[in-house]
């Protein structure tokens, strides 16, 4: 059994990975499949930090009661999916005030021209025409602060987030030139080992996303069984009747076969043989039952956690304390480099 000192030495040897998720929507079946393939291995190979980006959620008008409940819910979903708070640092962004402090310093270094080029601001402005606020414009700098505060070596990014990571890297350059090189670590993109890519149920050309406006496009890990069955049974397929994996001509069916394969442990070829001569409906009914069965223990753990908010708050506090040690160290170095006085 490693002692605290050997554990600390081990963490220093490991590269740090930081991943955050905005507390909107619910984690999906795609997140579950990604979790079972990556999280357990990652916590052995890397020093992992996972945070709930509740400050980012404020760029859209929020009901305070709903937002507070979503923070508890998201934290519980992380734990229910298998994130171990002892082996990973799991925390809530707003509970670490250093995020906001570093954000302001970095905002004062970031040229407006760089923010003007951020494509997500344009896209989100079109969706939020009644609330195009300054936070929506500058939140990529807060994302950079999230990353740089923990001296992250690696950041998992999809195609829609690459521009934000590039801005974070640009900001490191701005800071190096304006103040002192080496204070902030230059982060790199983390590309996980290729695994199953789970697509939208209604539009299988797009990845399944918790932020999708159409609930029919994803299965939430906390959807009730009837809702899961309805979503799987209504998933888009094609007019053919042969159950055969063909990503180009049968993207919807291929997506269902991928999900079935991952959850059952069978190869796609085995599933095709099992359903030879059968209809799509047979596959969907069985897949829906498999998804319900697979998510049952996750949902049981989730609901148990949600009944005990004191326990969740205790784990949040523990995670915040671990994260704050790193955040405070980085912010002190930043303050010293900038010329601010901490007392």
Descriptors for this entry?
343 residues, Rossmann fold, Tyrosyl-Transfer RNA Synthetase, three-stranded parallel beta sheet, two-stranded parallel ribbon
Question: What does this protein structure show overall?
Answer:
The protein is 55% helix and 7% strand. The protein is mainly alpha-helical and 343 residues long. It has two domains: 4-191 and 309-338, HUPs (Rossmann fold); 215-303, Tyrosyl-Transfer RNA Synthetase (Orthogonal Bundle). The strands form two sheets. The chain has a three-stranded parallel beta sheet. β4, α8 (162-178) and β5 form a beta-alpha-beta unit. α4 runs parallel beside α13 (309-338) and α7 packs across α8 (162-178). It is globular.
Counting helices, strands and paired strands, the structural category is: mainly alpha
| Poorly predicted sequence stretches spanning 5 or more consecutive residues | none
Topology, number of strands: 5
Shape: globular
Query: Which strand order spans the largest sheet, edge to edge or round the barrel?
Result: 1-2-3
Looking at the structure, the CATH topology of the largest domain is Rossmann fold
Mean pLDDT: 91
Termini gap: 39 Å
Relative strand content: 5-15%
Number of domains: 2
Give the fraction of residues assigned to helices: 40-55%
Assign the CATH class of the largest domain. Alpha Beta
CATH homologous superfamily label of the largest domain: HUPs
Largest sheet: 3 strands, parallel
- Pattern of helices and strands: HEHEHEHHHHEHEHHHHH
CA-based gyration radius: 22 Å
Total helical segments? 13
CATH-level-2 architecture of the largest domain: 3-Layer(aba) Sandwich
